Amino acid sequence: MLALREGRHAEARRLFEETAAVAPGDAAVHLGLAYACLGLRDEASAVVAVDRALALDPRNLRALVLKGDLLHRAGDTRNSLAFYQAAVRGAQARQSAPGAQPLPADLAREVARADAASRRVGAQLETAMRERIATLAPGAASARFEQSLDILFGHRKMHFQEPRQFFFAELPQIQFYPREQFAWLDRVEAATDAIRDELKAVMCDEHAFAPYVKSVPGRPRPPESEMLDNPAWSAFYLWKDGALVTENAQRCPRTLAALEGVPLNRLPQRSPSVLFSLLKPRTRIPPHNGLVNTRLICHLPLIVPSGCRFRVGNETRAWEEGKAWAFDDSIDHEAWNDSDQTRVILLFEIWRPELSERERDLVQALFASLDAQSGQTPSWEI
C-alpha cells in the first residue's frame, strides 16, 4: 500500500514538472494538472496546481469550484465557502454581461453544485455562529442586531436613504420606526372606526378618487411611470401641497380631528399631505423612493383584505386594520394588493423626530428660497 501511494505521488510530481516546463502561463493546463493529481489521489499537488491556475486566471469558474472542494475536504469550511460563493458570483456576472452565452452544460452543473454547497456550508457556519453568540452574550434579543446578522449571512440586503430631491445629512437609516416614539399613534388608531365610516361614504362617490401619480406637462415622467395616470392606485386628498382641500375636508371632519396634535410635516406649497390611498385588486406599486428624507410617512390601514403587503428596504410587512406604522419613504419601498378586493389606508406625513425645531425651520427656508428663485409653483408629490 505504501509503495502504491508513493508511486502515485511520484506520478503526480512528474506531471507537475512537465506541465510547469511546457506551459507555465496557461491556467487551463494547470487546472487539468490539478484534476489529474486528484485522479492520482495526490491532493497536496492538486492544491498547488489549482493555486497556480487561479494565480493566472483568478475568475476561472472551474478552478474556483475545485479550490472550494479541496478546502472543504481538508476541513476548512470557512474558506471553502468563500471560493464557492466566488464561483457563483462569477457565473452570475458572466451570464448578465451583454451578449452573454449560456454556460457549457458541465460547467453549469459545477456552478450549481457550488451554489448548493455554499448554501449548505453557509447554513452550518451560521448555525454555529448564532449558537456561539447566544452562549457568549445570553439574554434578550436585539431586533437591530438580528437584522444585522441577516445581512451578514445574506438573508437581507442593505438599503439606504436615496431621496430624489433633497438629502439631509447624518440622519439614521431606519426603515420602519418603533411605534413607541410616537405617543399620538394610539389616539389615531382609536379613531379607526370613525375614519373608516367617513372613507366608506367617500367611496360611494365613484369620481371622488383620482390617480395617485399624475403626469405634469413639461416635466419628466416619474420613475413609477407604469402607474402614471393609472386609477388602480388612487387618492382622495384632505390636505394637498400644503393646503387644506376644503371640499374634501368637510366630508371627513372626524378624520381631521384624529390628526390634531400630530407633527405633520410642513413645507410651503408642498406639505403636509393627508389622503386616503386606494389600491385596487391585483395591483402592485413598483419600487420607488420619496423626494426628501426629512419626513416620515404614516399609514393607518382601514380596509385591508388578505394578500396585501408592503416592503421598505429589506423588511416586508402585512397591513392590519387599525394598526398604524411610520416609515422612511426615502428608502426604496413597494406595495402589493394580491387580493380580489380594494385596499385603502389613511396616509399622512410627519417630521422626522430627529430634526430639531431649528433644523425644521431651515428646511422650510430652503424650499421657500428655491421657490422664490424659480418663480414657479413647485411640482410635488407625496
Q: Could you explain the architecture of this structure?
A:
The protein has 382 residues and is α+β, with helices and mostly antiparallel strands. The protein folds into 2 domains: 2-129, Serine Threonine Protein Phosphatase 5, Tetratricopeptide repeat; 179-374, B-lactam Antibiotic, Isopenicillin N Synthase, Chain (Jelly Rolls). Helices cover 45% and strands 15% of the residues. It has 12 helices and 11 strands. A hairpin with a 2-residue loop joins strand 2 (233-240) and strand 3. Helix 2 (27-39) packs antiparallel against helix 3 (43-56), helix 4 runs antiparallel to helix 5 (77-96) and helix 4 packs across helix 6 (105-136). The chain is elongated, with a radius of gyration of 30 Å. The N and C termini lie far apart (78 Å).
- Share in helix: 40-55%
What number of domains?
Answer: 2
The tally of helices reads 12
Any guess at the CATH architecture of the largest domain?
Answer: Sandwich
Distance between the termini: 78 Å
Choose one word for the global shape.
elongated
Q: Structural class of the secondary structure composition?
A: alpha+beta
CATH-defined fold name of the largest domain: Jelly Rolls
Q: What is the overall pLDDT average?
A: 90
List how many beta strands DSSP finds.
11
CATH class of the largest domain: Mainly Beta
- Low-pLDDT runs: none
Strand content: 15-25%
Task: For the structure shown, list the relevant keywords.
12 helices, alpha+beta, single chain, four-stranded antiparallel sheet, 2 domains, seven-stranded antiparallel sheet, 382 residues, Jelly Rolls, Serine Threonine Protein Phosphatase 5, Tetratricopeptide repeat
